[in-house]
Amino acid sequence: MPSFVFGAVVVFLLANLAVGLLRLAWGPNAADRVLSVQLFGTTLVAVVLLLGRVWQEPWFDVLALVLAFLAAFPALSYNRRVPTRSEERHRDSL
Amino acid sequence: MILDWLVVVLLVILSLTILLARDLFWVVASFITFGLVLTLAWSSLQAPDLALAEAAIGGGLMTLFLIDSLGFSDPEQTSSAGGFPITKLQGLTALGSMIVAVPLLRAFWAGGAVSPGLGPLVEQKIELSGVEHPVSAVLLNFRFFDTWFEMTVILLAIVALQTLRGRTPRGDSLPSGQSDQVLTWFARLLSPVLILFSVYLLWRGKHAPGGAFQSGVVLGAALSVLALTGYQDFLLRSPVVSRLVVTLGVVGFSGAGLFPLVLGGELAELPSGWAGDTILIVETMAALSTGMSIPYLLVALQVPKDKVQCEERTS
Amino acid sequence: MTVSEFFTIASLILGCFFFLAGTVGLLRLPDTLCRLHALTKADNLGLGFIVFALILQSQSVLESLRLLVIWLAALLTSSTASYLIGRHTLLSRDRKDSHL
Amino acid sequence: MSSSALFGGTGIIIFLVGLLGTFSLPHLLKKIVCINVMGSGVFLVLAAVGNKDVGATNDPVPQAMILTGIVVAMASSVFALALARQIAHRSGFWLLPEDREKL
Predict the structure, then answer these.
(1) Residues 284 to 303 of B: which have CB under 8 A from any D CB?
(2) Using an 8 Å Cβ cutoff, are B150 and B276 in contact?
């Protein structure tokens, strides 16, 4: 497999990420911004995996694994934000 | 090359976003993305250790600290205190930094005399260091002092935070998040794997990218996941032991640094035959203490609310 | 072109398509929960197809397993993250100041 | 242009953007984030100088120093965040006292 195919996919994915920055700008909720960060994280896992094949560097897989494992942190910390009273009530009624 | 340009453009856009954005969450989300893209920059510069550390800190742990602080701030203020009010002083600063930028960039791109750097020297002496990976050799042998005082800085940060926080009725625990089946299972699945992975990174550091700090940071991520999902036993069961683990890094480095003095050598001159073993022990201690430090930093960040409760109790 | 090369390119294109769909969905869909739906497609299928393409090109069984583990890790974290965001959105939907 | 020259130049620009933010944004959280951005700029310059196409080999010394720097920057940012939260809690604003007087 010629590596320029992988390189082209990497460029496409990064361009995708750049367009996704618009949602980061628009918001309007914090949740939307966490969502975009989530998408960027996954995109980067793919990018790192592909780059490891292009440059023939085996340690890129380790990097991809770190990125994949820690991708949940934005959502995890976002979830910890103190819920307001209405949220509490809603949860208790579930 | 196209890739480098894309990464550079993304980095500059994101830093400008951080400068100009009004919404606080936008700033923080841009900063997280900035950290993620920076990982690619390190990869492109062939600095795998930096990429690993940046992925774990910029993409993971800083998120935790920053969003935790955001949850504390109230919404009205977030929107009002944004803006970009340009006073005379700030205008001058902007002008000044642009004036500084031109010669800096010129100097950087002019190139000129290129020194060979310290790379060849490290390559030449690496057999004496006891490890095979050059970055680990520099970190734990040739520039032992840097890492020694790095551990001290982390410990000092925790001591300072604990002092700020004072004694609290609930000890070293996080205000419990919502306990929840999905989160519980997530923690049960993820944290053992993460801990195993951190041990792998530690072992790898001897001959390949990886090592005490990357390992410690991943361990810290595992422990924070546990603390955030309600498994706080490792903090609460025996607080003295957990605090001792936090100090392990400084203890290990001080021991390895001072011991050669007893044998009649120089300060921090690792004994040549035993360097490899000493480094392994010191690295393990450093990784454990870095890992334990991170939930402590997170706990100690919860200053004001605990303070309120304390003040209410005393009055 | 061999069969495995054909499948590799096909699945790379599919992966790119799902990432594109995820981004377009993130930009065009009207509210947070809809966007969450778009995102999960990119997370699971986009990354899945790209990992599949790489597995087809991998040199050893160990490398294939490693890639599979990375995909599974991404699945675990992204599904938990989606659940958390979805629940948080749902719980705070009746709030007036959903700004933060 | 080699990739290390590219990243080094970007490092300088990012440093200056962060510097500008640190001075001009009154919000303490933004100040802390901007200081971190500034630090990343410095790290980029340092890594670019130690890169293969500037020196003879990939220099591990700057890399080890940056690694130390990343961890120290994290610890000190957390400390700064705690101080900022203390200020925010006591005064009700994420602002330094000097900036509050201007409100």
Answers:
(1) 290, 293, 297, 300-301, 303
(2) no
The highest-level CATH class for domain D3-102 is mainly alpha
Check CB contact under 8 Å for A50 and C82: no
- Residue B262 is predicted with a pLDDT of 83
Do B63 and A65 make contact, defined as CB atoms within 8 angstroms? no
Ranges of each domain in chain D: 3-102
Q: Could you read off the pLDDT of B25-36 as tens digits, one per residue?
A: 889 999 999 999
pLDDT value of residue D57: 67
- pLDDT tens by residue, B105-127: 887 777 655 666 777 788 778 87
Please state the domain extents for chain B. 132-315
Q: Do A37 and B68 touch (CB under 8 A)?
A: no
Residue C7 burial (C-beta neighbours within 10 Å; 0-12, 13-18, 19+)? middle
Amino acid occupying residue C38: A
Contact check, Cβ <8 Å, B36/A21? no
- Condensed to tens digits (0 to 9), the pLDDT of residues C52-91 reads 999 998 888 999 999 999 999 999 999 999 998 888 888 7
Per-residue model confidence as pLDDT tens digits over B222-246 = 999 988 887 877 777 778 888 899 9
State the Cα–Cα distance between residues D1 and D4, nearest whole angstrom. 8
Contact assessment for residue B34 and residue B16, using Cβ atoms and an 8 Å cutoff:
no
Contact of C32 with chain A, judged by CB distance below 8 Å, is answered with yes
What pLDDT does B302 receive?
77
Tell whether C73 is within 8 A of chain A (Cβ): yes
D28 and D87 Cβ atoms separated by less than 8 Å = yes
Q: Are A28 and C99 a contacting pair at CB < 8 A?
A: yes
pLDDT tens figures, B279-290: 888 899 999 999
Residue type, B271: P
Under 8 Å between Cβ of B162 and B255? no
Extract the tokens encoding C85: 């965001």
CA pair distance B122, B129, nearest whole angstrom? 9
Chain B residues whose beta carbon lies within 8 Å of the beta carbon of residue D13 = 12, 15, 101, 105
At residue C19, the pLDDT reads 93
In which residue are the tokens 């006292």 written?
A: D97
For chain B, say whether A21 makes contact (Cβ under 8 Å).
yes
Q: Is residue A62 within 8 angstroms of chain B, CB to CB?
A: yes
Q: Please, are residues C66 and A61 in contact by the beta-carbon 8 Å criterion? A: yes
CB atoms within 10 A of CB D75: 22
Q: Tens digit of pLDDT for each residue in B245-274?
A: 999 989 998 988 888 888 877 777 777 777
User: Tokens 């700008």, residue?
Assistant: A25
- Annotate chain A with DSSP letters as a single string: --HHHHHHHHHHHHHHHHHHHHHHHH--SHHHHHHHHHHHHHHHHHHHHHHHHHHT-TTHHHHHHHHHHGGGHHHHHHHTSPP-HHHHHHHHH-
Tell me what the mean pLDDT of segment D73-97 comes to. 86
CA distance C12 to B305: 50
Inter-CA distances, B209 with A91, B202, B206, B242, Å = 45, 10, 8, 29
